[in-house]
Design a protein that fits this description.
192 residues; alpha+beta; six-stranded antiparallel sheet; three-stranded antiparallel sheet
């Protein structure tokens, strides 16, 4: 009975704030040099239901017993059965190197949602304080584009009732280095 209850609870809420759960890697793509997009499976074909502006935490335990924990903002979490995480592998970086060794079919331990910021049409909540906004200016560089992309997608997904205007400035060494470039340009062209 306990097993069935846990299965039911996992089916109802695929992610928990305080408990790390195993999510299976179902796809991996190299986006740029040392930058990868991983697609994790959400059990039972459910949506992750991650509020816009929130992130997840990924954890692994090193051989000496030390836990390594890092936060990532999924670039996509509204598609049933999956969510995407973009990350960079830095020389000597613990989490990026750990993730980079995962093969399709392996699992990572993830919890969430975490973070103090969330967004719903026309309104940010920052540590419980509401901020009404009509125009949002976003500045990003490197993998810092992921929280911005998440907000952009949330606004565009609700374009019928969300009139928030967005300006995104991305800093990069070269245009080719801008992560998610084609996706973001596509959004701009479609929603001018």
């Amino acid at each position: 009975a306990l097993y069935l209850y846990r299965c039911y609870k996992r089916m109802k809420e695929p992610m928990a704030v305080r408990e790390f759960k195993a999510f299976r890697l179902i796809e991996r793509q190299e986006m740029a040099e040392a930058t990868h997009l991983f697609v994790f499976q959400v059990p039972f074909g459910k949506e992750l239901n991650l509020p816009a502006g929130k992130h997840v935490q990924i954890c692994f335990t090193k051989s000496d017993g030390e836990q390594v924990l890092r936060s990532y903002t999924p670039t996509e979490s509204s598609v049933p059965g999956r969510f995407d995480v973009l990350f960079k592998v830095y020389p000597g970086g613990q989490m990026g190197n750990y993730l980079n060794k995962l093969n399709v079919g392996d699992s990572a331990y993830i919890r969430g949602p975490t973070g103090r910021l969330s967004y719903k049409p026309g309104e940010f909540s920052v540590s419980g304080r509401k901020v009404i906004c009509g125009h949002v200016l976003m500045l990003a560089g490197g993998t810092g584009i992921t929280p911005m992309a998440q907000i952009v997608k949330a606004v565009l997904r609700n374009s019928g009732r969300d009139t928030t205007k967005l300006t995104l400035i991305v800093c990069s060494s070269t245009p080719e280095d801008v992560l998610l470039y084609h996706e973001l340009v596509g959004f701009a062209e479609k929603h001018q």
